[in-house]
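Q: Hi! First time asking for a complex rather than a single chain. Here are the components, and I think there are two in total. Is that enough to go on?
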Amino acid sequence: MSSNKLSILVVSGSLERLQMAAMVASVGAVSGTQVQVLLSMNSLQYFVRANTQEPGAEGNFGRTMAGKKVPPFKQLLQQAMELGDAKIHPCSMAMDVLGTKAEDLEPFLARPLGLTRFLTDSVGGQLLTF
Amino acid sequence: MTSKQVIDARGTFCPGPLMELIAAIKLAAVGDEIEVLSTDEGSASDIPEWIHKVGHDLVSTASDAGVWHVVVRKAK
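A: Yes, that's all I need. Here is the structure of the assembled complex.
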C-alpha cells in the first residue's frame, strides 16, 4: 500500500465527527488519495435507511453548524465515491450487533468489511479515527 | 470549441464549493473554463490549492463585495 492511501475509522455518532470524517474523505478522494472509510459503533445507525433520526451535536459548533448551509455528511461521502477514489464500508461487526442486513443500509455503501481486512488494507497508509 | 460556465456556490460552506466545482470539471471538456462564486473564505484559498495539486489551470481569483470569483480551466 502506498502512502497515498487514507483509511478513516468512524466510531462516533456525533454530528461534528461524522461531518469532519466526511469532509476529510471527500476532499482526500478528489485530490488523488485512495480513501477507505469503515463505519462502525455509533456511526453506523445513521446509514440505516429506516432510521430518520439525525445525529446530535456534541458541542456549540455542531449546533451552530446545523443551522448553516454545510454540505450534509452523507452527501459528502457519496461524492467521495462518485467524484473520487473512495469506498465507504459498513463494519460487519456493527451490522451483527445492530441486526442490520446490507440491504437495510444506504445503497451507496460498499460491501461490509471486517476489522482484519480494514487493518490489512490500511498498512502503509494513514489511518484517522473519528 | 471551449465553453465557460458559472457555478453559484454562494452561502455554501467548505467543502461545498470545491465539490460543486469538481462535479462540473468531471463533465467539462479540456479547455473549458468554470467560474466558482463563493462567499466562503476557506474555499477561496482551498480551491486554488486543489487546482494546483491535481494539475488544472487557475485563470484568476478575485473578491468583489464579499464574493470570491475563482476561474479554473480544465487542463486534462
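A: The interface with chain A takes residues 11-16, 18-19, 22-23, 26, 46, 50, 53-54 of chain B (CB under 8 Å). Let me know if you'd like any chain examined more closely.
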